[in-house]
Design a protein that fits this description.
heterodimer, A: alpha/beta, 8-stranded mixed sheet, 12 strands, B: alpha/beta, 4-stranded antiparallel sheet, 21 helices
Chain lengths: ~400, ~725
Amino acid sequence: MSNQETLLRVEHLCQYFKAGNFVTKAVDDVSFDIKKGEVFGLVGESGCGKTTTGRSIIKLYNITSGNVYFKGVRIAAGIQSYKDAIKQAKKDNIPDLDKFIAEQRKLIKEAKNDQKNCDREFSRQLVAELKEKYAPLLEKATGAEKTKLEAEYKNELRKAKNTKLVTQIQMIFQDPIASLDPRMTVREIIAEGLIIQGERDKKVIDQKVYEMLELVGLVPEHASRYPHEFSGGQRQRIGVARSIIMNPELIIADEPVSALDVSVQAQVINLLNDLRDRFGLTILFIAHDLSVVKYFSDRIGVMYYGKLVELADSDELFAHPFHPYTKSLLSAIPLPDPIYEKARKRIVYNPLAEHDYSVDKPSLREVCPGHFVQCNNAEYERIIKELEANG
Amino acid sequence: MENKLQVRNLRISFRTSNGKVQAVRDISFDLAKGETLAIVGESGSGKSVTSKAILGILAGNSIIESGEIIYDGKDLLKISEEDFHKIRGDKIAMIFQDPMSSLNPIVRIGKQLTEAMLLKGKARQRESRSNFNTYLKNLEKAMIEADASNDPQKAAQISQNCKKFDKFEFKHIELESAYNKAFTAADETADDIEKIAFEFEKGSISRGADDRINDIVKQSRDSVNEYVVKPSKKDRVYSLTSQLKAQFKKSKKTNKFDDTVKTLYELRDIMKEGVSVEAPNFFCMGYYLTFSDKPLPDMPIDQLNAYLHDYIDKDFMLAFISDAEQALKHSSEVSCENMKKAIAELEAAKPVFAKENLDRKECLEAHKHLSAVVSACVDKLDINKDSLTFTFAPSLKSQIDSYFHAIGANKKAIRAHEKDQRKFDRIVAKGKKPNWEVADAAVTDLELIKANIARLIDRLIDHYDALLANYDSRNFDNETVAVIDYLKANASGVVDKVTRRIAKHRAIKLMEEVGIAEPHKRYKQYPFEFSGGMRQRIVIAIALAANPDILICDEPTTALDVTIQAQILELINNLKEERKLSVIFITHDLGVVANMADRVAVMYAGKIVEYGTSEDIFYRSAHPYTWALLSSMPDLDTNEKLEAIPGTPPNMIYPPKGDAFAPRNRYAMAIDFERQPPMFKISDTHFAATWLLHPDAPKVDPPKAVVDRIARMKSKRGLKDE
């Protein structure tokens, strides 16, 4: 797994929301990588920042600080950390203050540029590629063939100019009822992305829409209906179709099955699994149902109050949880077995009683290959000892 | 076990523009006291409709076609809206599925939480008072009849005793009320002080600290009572509280809290001492203070209690108890006599309802006569109401009414059907092929109604036979004790006065209990300031606020994450244990069911397809739908592809002819498409409606995923036990 290409890299992502003088740290210093073709699960209780993380990655929010790299390109960058560094430097009055500030300002400028122009770079590149491809063809062609080719070239060029890098990340939303516009037909909903991208050929659009509908287990006749005519599971399928029509490389699935019945849940999970195998999709799977996450994900990150507290392969995480919050989370999973359930003891997590972070600040450390835990020095040593004792 | 709620043959449908949707089709179940019944099924299977019917909040286009929901001697389907007000929310509470829409967006959380407590508090006091009065009156009457029907002197004595009981109960109420108020005040102040002092020690004040300090001041002054904070300490409490106010003002400016904290702790110690004092027996004390004309003897509480107890026994209680026992015996004897008569009358009335065509006049006369006979069987001194006796007359009436209504309606329906058929035939005769079919005439089966009436009568006869047979084994000593307890409980129900401040404290405690941080701040916020999980907790807190008998949970944790789900489930389980709540738990998450349920009913397309204890359902499930549900959910060890149930539930406007699950069923046989399977009994507790259980059916094993899981869980448990 480690030799695979990294598709998405999140570095020190922070997302703060201001309300008056009060700052909510929704996501605080979260870092992780997602490899190509894997399913990365993000779990945690409601309000811990899972959804915010997903939305920050897809640039629905302007992130406060940190970087998000997609296919090696920085698609989102925050500047708060640099500003803080300047403030701190001024306060400490370090030597070479001016030089330091100039450096930081330069970084801020770069970050702002990347945040704004990453898509432009990408489309510029696409346009250049197209030009390179069509120039020799156009030269060679003559007569009617040339006009046809020119029209095709123009069409492609327009699409390339409108294509954004971020469209390769798509999102599936939690609530299949609220996330579909009730006044649009299914065809309009699914094709919206294509139209924005510049596709004007009705035939192509229809064909693609039908293809997607069949892919997600609906029939082409459904295209002319409205969302309210569908059941919850079918609506979620429409949401899935809408996201995969853009040919994404990464799908952020924000609790796609939480609002569904068990039987329908299984249908949607099977669908996502099929699509993943078929297109080699990479999925960031955000959910709170741990059984589903365990079944579906290759690696799992556990979040608690804006922080990533543990990150490991899913089997490893469930077999050897180290962080007390993860332990408490795992102890709360209900299983379909009455005798086991009635004997199950839930572990309560109380951060104040569990950790002493007054002096020794915690950070995310690798305790064994691929397994990261948020801990401080003392806890790190304890975990290592525990690991050695168990072999 | 005592059945709290009985649902019998419930059928509910909805009128829509496309036709009649049959949402619930003939379901029956019981709910015992202190038991959790889980109803499992896909959305649209009729789970929610059932629960709404129990609560009487069905949508306007619903038709209750038949059935009974018997609770506390009443048939909830036939009582008036005014009567329902006394039950809904107070006796039967509901936690709704969608926390977004079940809270009022323009009312503060605190108000919404306390509203029910305040309203229901008053209603409850009234009800307790009236219960107490009626029961005492009935008891008095029975006592006189039993023992002193020819002895006016004795009768006067008994009347006087009962009046005495009433009078000193008042004193008892008064004393206990004052004590309760002071005790809760002291207890809560001690709690509050702990919390706020902890914050002060850390040097931080949260918003609303002023209010809380004010509360502490008021509360601690309230806590002065003979048996809580002794009146001798009153001055100290007052001086401490005024000191506290001044100190807090000062320390807010300087941000130094040492003095305030010190004062707070002293106050807390006084409160704690007050709370730790043992409470005297107010019941006996009330009697002593009312009738003895002497001041209370000065002795420690336990001796005092013994002394008072002795006094009341000698002076009044023993005589009263023996009278009460006589009365109970007499009253039950009378009702038994009446039962014997009633059985004969019921038997005699049977032929009236068994005729080929019922006669309206005759039927109504028989109904009138039978209602009088049956209502005479009611033992007014029996604390547990006999539901069957109470619901007999209204049930019989509704069956008779529906019979005579159906006679007219059927004619109309047949005419309409014939008209449609003629139209259809005309079109066919023209050589066209219409793309519709003629629906069957909507005829009500008159024979079925007659059978229902016969069953109703038979059931009552059987019930009375059983009661008469058990008469000898009744223990009147115990029953008398229960009666006194009942009177006491009702009296203290009158004591339990909910003031605004008590309501607020209870609300804040509830909010803490359901896991809401900073309840003091949250108390004043609006619902939009809460996240989904938080809102659901508020909804649960509101449902619990009125202290209900039966709690209906309609997917309460579907919108919550695991840790909070676990907390909420634990909370519901604890409350169930503490208050002997009966819970109906509606969900589609089988993991949750395993945790919560004592018994499980699996519903599909408006029918209960499998019914059993949770062990039956999870380890020995027999219906293919249950198998499908079990195998379609992943657990922590699932690696293979999930077995989703193909297709969707049927359209209930046109319910399928045979087994509704047959089209989606891998194990469906030919007969499944032809005839509906009956309920097959597997064991005493376990029933399933599938033809697979028929002796002639081929033997089918549950799917591999289910068998594997059971084996895996077994081995896991085995390891745990070691």
